Amino acid sequence: MELVNVAKEVHLSAKNPHNISEGLSKVISKHATLHIHPQIESLHEDGLVLFVDGSSTIADTILYCTGYSYSFPFLDTKGIVAVDDDRVGPLYEHTFPPSLAPSLSFIGIPRKLIGFPFFESQAIWIAQLLSGKRTLPSWEDMMQSIKEFYKSRDLAGIPKHNTHDLADFDYCDKYADYVGFPHLEEWRKELCISALIKSEINLETYRDAFDDHEMLQVAYQSPHFTQLEYLDYTQ
């Protein structure tokens, strides 16, 4: 959206242009040169962009804002771990392939959560397993857990390509319990939710809002900031 200040026109293509956030609606209504369309049907050499509803435009530049897909071209597991429609699996707790655990593990696969504390708890769990201080469930139990997780996602109507989109504070806390890692602090959860709500309402300006002073004061007193005490989670 920052491009509206420098480009003659900006055209957005979305799967469901009629189901956009309040924040995006505000931005579109504010800028006459910002347009939204359904999905792209085809691209042509002369710059023509044809959309599925039959409309079209001429584009000088196309930016693919589709996020990212998981890919591990450097990793040969003989088919034990595969990426299928952005589902990396099978992975026990999004981390361990049961047939290769704990010698092979993945950090950072889950999305839509407060990343770095979660990734730190993953690293701690892996270190504990490799050092022999903890053990994993049996292969059968891990595979059963994975199957149950996949089934729960299917029943909830969550498409396969969103398998690792967790958006669940409780899951982060449950994962932390595996290794004795602290639960997410309430201020961190509140800060995350507050930012998400603001982005939904004021997409163009929410990054410039600084009304989180009280939560920051609480945050500054947490161990993550003070580092007054060393906690050994490997014990």
UniProtKB/TrEMBL annotation:
Record GO terms (molecular function): flavin adenine dinucleotide binding; N,N-dimethylaniline monooxygenase activity; NADP binding
Superkingdom per UniProt: Eukaryota
KW Plastid (keyword) present: no
Coiled-coil boundaries: none
EC number: 1.-.-.-
The protein's required cofactors: FAD
Keywords for the protein's UniProt record, in alphabetical order: FAD, Flavoprotein, Monooxygenase, Oxidoreductase
Top-level EC class as recorded in UniProt: oxidoreductase
Record flagged with keyword Oxidoreductase: yes
Stated family: Belongs to the FMO family.
Name of this protein: Flavin-containing monooxygenase
Organism of provenance: Cuscuta campestris
